[in-house]
Specification:
Layout: E1 2-6, E2 9-13, E3 33-36, H1 40-56, E4 71-73, E5 76-82, E6 88-93
Parallel strand pairs: 3-6
Antiparallel strand pairs: 1-2, 4-5, 5-6
Length: about 100
């Protein structure tokens, strides 16, 4: 298991033996989860850590893609990535005054 921490939120990433590695259809669907960073610099560290986990090959990712670049949209910075099951995560920083 690997733990990623953002403030009070903890995300656990782990392999489960015997589970399918291919994405499958599910009755429950999410577009993505969004996690808010407290500072723009946190996005850089989170993205780098995600890349390190992906490149470690300790996990099999259902969607084998690296995180997007950090983009700026109307003052909000964010990047997107997929967890080991193919669920899309957004990590975002919204400066004071824009929320």
């Amino acid at each position: 298991m690997t733990e990623m921490v953002l403030g009070d939120v903890r995300c656990h990433l782990f392999d489960r033996p015997g589970r399918m590695s291919e994405p499958v259809e599910s009755a429950v669907q999410f577009q993505h989860f969004c996690f808010s960073a407290s500072a723009a610099e946190d996005l850089v560290g989170l993205r780098r850590r995600w890349i390190e986990l992906h490149e470690s090959r300790r996990y099999t990712f259902a969607i084998d893609e690296q995180p997007t670049d950090i983009v700026l949209d109307d003052g909000v910075q964010s990047f997107y990535t997929y967890d080991v099951n193919g669920l899309e995560f957004e990590f975002t920083f919204v400066p004071d005054g824009l929320s």
